[in-house]
Structures are given as structure tokens and as C-alpha cells.
Amino acid sequence: MTQASAAAVPKEPPATSDLVDVRLVLWHFTAGMVFLAVAILAGFLFSLQFIQRYPVAGIELFSPGRWRMVHTNGVAYGFLANVFLGALYWAVPRLTLRPVYSRRLSWFIFFAWQAVVLATAVGLVLGHAQALEWGETPVYVDPVALLGLMLVAVNFLAPIFQTSGPMYVSLWYFIAAFIWTVLVYAMGNFLPQYFVGGAAAGAIGGLFIHDLVGLFVTPLGWGLMYYFVPIILKKPMWSHGLSLVGFWGLAFFYPLTGIHHFLYSPIPLFLQHGAVITTIAIEFVVTTVIINFFGTLAGRGDTLRTNLPIRWFYTGMVFYFVTCLQCSFQTTLTFQKIIHFTDWVVGHAHLVMLGVFGFWLLGIILYLWPRLVGSNAWYSDVLNSWHYWLTMLGTLIMFLDLLVAGLIQGYLWRDLSPWEDSLRASMPFWLVRTFSGVMITVGQFMFFWNCYKSWRLGAPAGAPRREPSRGSMAPATA
Amino acid sequence: MFESRSGVFLIAGLGFFGLSFLVMAVLPWAIYYKEPEQTVEQLAARGIIPEFVDLAERYPEQFKQYFGAPTYATYVEALRLGHQVYVAEACWHCHSQFIRPVSNEDLRWGPVSHALEYQNELQRPVLFGTRRVGPDLSREAGRRSNDWHVAHFWQPTSVVPSSVMPPYRWFFDGQGYPNKRGLAVITYVQFLGSWLKEYPYFHGEGPLGPLPAPTPADAPIARGATSGETDSVDAPIVGAATAGVLP
Questions:
Q1: Distance of residue B229 Cα from the nearest chain A Cα, in angstroms
Q2: Which residues are within 8 A (CB) of B35 and not within 5 positions of it... i.e. 6 or more apart?
Q3: Contact of A197 with B120, CB cutoff 8 Å
Q4: Cβ contact A413:A336 at 8 Å
Q5: Chain B contact for A175, CB < 8 A?
Q6: Which of B4, B6, B8 to mutate to test the interface with A (most CBs of A within 10 A)?
Q7: What residues of chain A lie within 8 A of the CB of B164, using their CB?
Q8: Nearest Cα to A439, choosing from A378, A365, A356, A350?
Q9: pLDDT (average), residues A444-467
Q10: Are A91 and A199 within one domain?
Q11: Which residues of B152-191 are buried (b: 16+ CB within 10 A; e: fewer)?
């Protein structure tokens, strides 16, 4: 980490307080958790529809279909984006030894982004959705959101490009992610709506769904892992060569996979074949990244037990490997015959978004929160432990449950059973899904409560907050 | 190059994204580029579905209040509004609109989907869907009666006991009759697949009658009115579809 940027720094490094606006990180994390709370409750509410127990049925503003979109968009743009931004405000200035482009711009972005997420949620509930998966943001929000993403790119790319000398791995991912996110958002939200119709728009829609995961969430997530894991373990990455393979493999193959969302669709078949091959190729790239991170962990395996952030990170990585392995199978035309359109895919999506990236970001919040609020410690380590186990087991149960449900649905459909058979057969699985969702929900609210109490433990407002010095990379006690 | 700012920015950030955009977006677009995208007016000009006329007969007061008479112009209006409601309620998150050539889907629903079926305004953005909680809807036209749809939208479990579809009470007025949105979304759902040669694919009793001609735009359409170009009840759709070619 430091040796990478050391060459560019001739003299005393600047003080951390000049680099990082801690309050901004804190606010982004808080906003992220508020939206996570909303999104997770929306998901829980929606899951009740599947067991015919929707409590507020028949009310337009509680239309389950609309709240489903609040769930997915709330997670993507409310939770993930906010916590990513917070973590970036923490990490990028430390990696470049320069503050972001403008502190005022950062705050403007903060408020603008919350307005975007709120407008999206309200718009969806009022019925202004756009028919684009993960991009249901109402059309009038799209230009504002795109502008916000551009400002984010400027704000962070400025310090990165102002420095010279070698760049640490995280910054490769960040640079690429900032450009990709802007391009992906523009492509997905505007082309199918205004310029391209029909099956070709389906190809773009598939590209958008996958690029949002692959080119916005994934590179930011891995970039942060390359930053936080070596810092907490106090050792460098195992192999720089594998870091290179991982980044460039992802950058090349990931954008080429989008159409695998619409196999056997009216999109030309040779393009579908191409998407299948690149998706399988990704699995090999992912394996190199996983090997690199477990090589880094080697010899420090005890931290999985003693250090909760590390446990979150590596649980996420195991889930990442599982989900990518699953993907390389489910993307084949053989698997697609059965599992496409089923709950298998829903389970996959939950494992990726919550089990991998959600876990990483929760780990990062866990690591940084006491430093941000100046409490130096968590209010309760027991609550944190409960949070981990409830969330981890809840996610695992939900994933396995939906996996099996998906297979049953797929085979019942193929067997030409009456449609209701697939509903009746799914009902027990949907019940289990709701219970696993309750576990996750309860776990998160324990964490939110813990965050709140730790905040109260911290320095009173106005008093100087303790900020960890640049050299302080001590692992958080957990 | 592989670790420099410009290398990452230009090759990975712009280059690889551009490559994927060319292959995965521009190429399919170029393949279908010459197929004109039809407007709702053009779709409606192929013939008005009898279910639309049936709605006007079944709910005369409501239909008159919200649409007036069942004309070509009001049919176009109903399709647009129905599509809008379909998107707003995210129906497409639980109902796909494409029939795959595998998993016996053609036996369950009807002909496998063709790319040209999606070259129209009502598929912008395209409504393939990614999940089927309920059945696919792209071959729904005429499969069930308007009565069934009204009862189903009011309380899905009343006709399908194990249904997990929500009741859409806001598609109805105070008296329990479909309101403008209700009439429109039923028209839209009854329209899905009506462009097929095989339509009406699932009528037990056979077609309701030949399709009325769309012109002139303001003339009310009565059931049974015949289109000059339709010469057989087995080929109710005027235009390319009757020649065995999709729209």
C-alpha cells in the first residue's frame, strides 16, 4: 500500500485530517444504512406477497410490484452506492495522499445523491417506473443521476490523476469503475428508452443489468478489498502478478457477458453463444483473484476468528467464488433450459448483492464506524456477532432455499404441469425465504442499533474527534 | 501500460467498454436496423381485437365515460395507457413476454417468440422479463375472457386459488367496475399475441368474430363488423400475419 505511493511523496505526508472529511464518510454510511433499512423492509414486505400474507393488499401506494423495485433500487443506489462513496472518501485520499477534487463538491454530491435516491423511491411508489431491470429509476431522474455520477468521477479522478508514479491495485479498479459507471448508466437508461427498440434493446438491457453488477459494483468492491484486507492483515497482497491478471481479466471479459441474461431469446444466437463463453472465462479470472486473497490470508487464518471485518470480507469472498462458479454453470444453454425465469436466479442475485458486496460493505462499516464516531470501540461486540451470524446464515438459507425452489419450478414447467402446481410447490420455499429474510432483517437492525449506541458513546458533537493517524492501521477489535 | 493511469483509463475504461458496446449493443442493433419499429397506430391498423369491443359492450357506462366509443383512436389510447400501467405496476417482473424454444414452452403457450414481434413502440424498453412467477403473457390474447380478467384483477385468488398475484383494486371504480386503467390494462393484456397467425390461440368456442376494419378512425366499431381485407375467420389479422409472416 504505502510503498506504492511512497515514491510520489518526497517529504512528510500530509495530515489525515487534511485529506479525509471524516464527517462525509460518516454521513454517507448513515445514509446508506437508512436506505438499507428501507430496502430490506421493502423486500420483506414483498416476500409476504408470495405466501399470500400481504398485510396492506389492495392499496395502490403499497402495490407489491412497486415495492419490489424500491427493494432492488434501494439496495443498488441507496445502500451500495452510498457506502461505496463513503469508503472511497476514506480510501482514495489515503492512496493518493491528496484530498478529493473539492470538499464542497463532495457535499453537493452527497445531498444530490440522496435526492436522486429519494426521488427514485417516491417515483417508483407513485408508478413512474421505467421498464428496465435495475434501471427502473423514473426517466426524469435519469439525467440527474447521470450528472451525479459524472461529478463523482471528476471528484475522485482528480486526485488520482494529479499524482504520478506507480498506482496501487485499488486505484486501477477505481479509475475503471468511475468511467464504466457513467458509461453504463448512460447506455442502459437512455438507449433502450429513446433510441433502440425491440430485441436489440433487450441486448442492451442485458448488458446494463450485468454491467451494473460487473462494472460498477464489482470493481469498486474489489478495489476496496485490495485496500482494506492488506491494511487490516498488515501484510501486502500475496501476488502482484495475480492482481494484474484479476484486474485485466475482469476488465476484458466482464463487459462481454450481458446477453447471457436473455438466452434462448430472439437476440441472435451467435451473440448468446459469445456471452456464454465470456461468462465461463470470468470464472477462471475470479479464481485467480480468490487465490490471491487466500494467499494473502495464509498464516493469518486466526484473524477469521478474532477480526470481524476480516471475517465479513472472506465470507463474502467465499460467496463470491460460489456465486461465480454457479454462474459459469447456470449460464450454459443446458442449465438455462430449466433454471431461467425461476427462483434460482433470484437466489443467485441475493448471494451476489448481499452475500458478497453487502458483506464487504458491512465489514468496511464495521471497521471504520468506531473511528468515524470517535468512540474507538463498539457499543456491543455481542450484537456485532449476532449481526454476522444472523445475516450470514439468513443469506445462506435464502440462497439454498431459492436454488432448490428454482429447480422444482423449472422441472414442473418443463413437465407441462398446470401452472398452479409450480405455485403450490413453491409455497413452502417462499415461506422459508421469508423467514431467512426475517433473520437478515433482524440482524441488520441489531447492527443499526449498535451503530447508534456507539455513536452516542463517541465524542459529543462539536468536540474534536479522534482520527486515526496515517500510521495507525491497527485492526479493529471485534 | 497495464499499471499506468492512462493505460487503465483508455484501455480498460474506454477501450474494453467500447468493444463490448460494439459487440453486444451495436451489432444486434445493426442486425435489426432495417426492420422498422412500428407505432401503436400501425399495430392497431392491423385490426382491433374483439375483446376491446366486448369491453365496451360489457361495461357500456364505464367505457363511454373513459373512452367514449370503441374506435380505432380509443383502441390506440387504451393500448398506450395499458402498456403504461403494465410498466408502472412492474407486471413484467413476474410475467415474461417471450416464449423460448426449450422446456416445452411452445406446447404450453404457443409459437416461439420471433425478433420482429418486438419491433414496436409497446416494446420500448423491451419487456422480455427475467422472472416468471405467473405465466408468460406474450400469447395471452383471447386465451381468457374479459370477465375472467376483471375477476382476476379484482381478486386473483377468486379464480386461481393458489395465485400470489396482488389484487389491483385501483383498476376499479367505487362500484367495482373497471375504471380507465382497468379497461386499458385488460385491453393491453388481451392484445398480447393477437398479431399471430394462430390467434386466437386458445379460444375454446372459436373466435368471437372477424375483426373490424380500423378506418375511419372515429367510426364506432360494432362486433361482427368485417374488414374488407379479412376473408376468413381463421385468418383474422390483416396484413403480413395472414401470409404466415410475423409482423
A1: 28
A2: A198, B115, B116, B119
A3: yes
A4: no
A5: yes
A6: B8
A7: 49-52, 423, 430
A8: A350
A9: 78
A10: no
A11: bbbbbeeebebbbbbbbbbbbbeeebbbbbbbbbbbbbbb
Cβ neighbours of B19 in A, within 8 Å: 255-256
Q: Does A241 touch chain B (CB under 8 A)?
A: no
Query: Quick one: pLDDT at residue B217?
Result: 53
pLDDT of residue A173: 96
**Is A434 contained in some domain?**
yes
Q: Give pLDDT, residue B202.
A: 53
Residue A431 touches chain B, beta carbons under 8 Å: no
Of A100, A18, A36, the residue nearest A72 (C-alpha)? A36
Average pLDDT over residues A347-374: 96
A88 and A216 both lie in a single domain: no
Give the pLDDT score at A375.
Answer: 86
- Of A255, A283, A300, the position where a domain reaches its end is A300
| A residues 275..304 contacting B (CB < 8 A) | 275
In the predicted structure, residue B234 carries a pLDDT above the cut 50: no
CB contact, 8 Å: B204 with chain A? no
Q: Verify whether the Cβ–Cβ distance A266 to B114 is below 8 Å.
A: yes
| Residues B40-91 pLDDT 10s | 999 998 888 889 999 999 999 999 999 999 999 999 999 999 999 999 999 9
Q: Is residue B100 within 8 Å of A265, Cβ to Cβ?
A: yes
Please state at what angle helix A169-190 crosses helix A142-162, rounded to 10 degrees. Answer: 160
Residue B225 has pLDDT above 60, yes or no: no
Looking at A314-323, A327-336, A361-370, B210-219, which range is the least confident one? B210-219
**Does B93 sit within 8 Å of A65, measured CB to CB?**
yes
Asked if the ipTM is above 0.85, the reply is yes
Q: Which residue has the cell 435489426?
A: B32
DSSP code, position B178: B
With a CB-CB cutoff of 8 Å, which residues 167-196 of chain B face chain A? 167-170
Judge whether residue A159 has pLDDT over 60.
Answer: yes
List CB contacts (< 8 A) between A258 and chain B. Answer: 20, 24
Give the pLDDT confidence score for residue A470 in this predicted structure.
38
In chain A, how many domains are there?
A: 3
User: Last residue of some domain: A300, A325, A343?
Assistant: A300
Residue A143: which residues within 8 A CB-CB, separation 6 or more? Answer: none
Is residue A468 domain-resident?
Answer: no
Query: Which residue in the set A274, A341, A423 is minimally distant from B163, CB to CB?
Result: A423
Is A325 inside a domain boundary?
Answer: yes
What digits encode the pLDDT tens for the residues A10-45?
Answer: 567 788 888 899 999 999 999 999 999 999 999 999
One domain, residues A134 and A215: no
Smallest CA–CA distance from A410 into chain B, residue = B103
Cβ-Cβ contacts under 8 Å, A342 against chain B: 131-132
Contact of A346 with chain B, judged by CB distance below 8 Å, is answered with yes
**pLDDT value of position A280:** 95
Give the three-class secondary structure for B238. Answer: coil
The pTM score is 0.90
Same domain, A294 and A310: no
* Residue A348 shares a structural domain with residue A403: yes
Q: What is the pLDDT of residues A219-243, one digit of tens each?
A: 999 999 999 999 999 999 999 999 9
Is the pLDDT reported for residue B228 higher than 60? no
Do A275 and A192 belong to one domain? yes
Q: Does B226 have pLDDT greater than 60?
A: no
Residue B203's identity, in one-letter code, is H
Choose, out of A168, A252, A264, the residue to mutate when testing the contact with B (most B CBs < 10 Å).
A264
Pick the closest to residue A284 from A247, A323, A246, A322 (CA basis): A246
Which residues are CB-contacts of A32 (< 8 A; sequence separation ≥ 6)? Answer: A78, A79, A80, A81, A82, A83, A86, A361, A365
CB contact (8 A) between residue A197 and residue B4: no
Name the residue facing B98 among A248, A265, A336 (closest C-beta). Answer: A265
CB contact (8 A) between residue A268 and residue B126: no
A251/B3 Cβ within 8 A: no
Same domain, A99 and A67: yes
Query: Which chain B residue lies closest to A54 (C-alpha atoms)?
Result: B166
A477 lies in some domain: no
Shared domain for A409 and A330, answered yes or no, is yes
Range of the domain at A232: 166-300
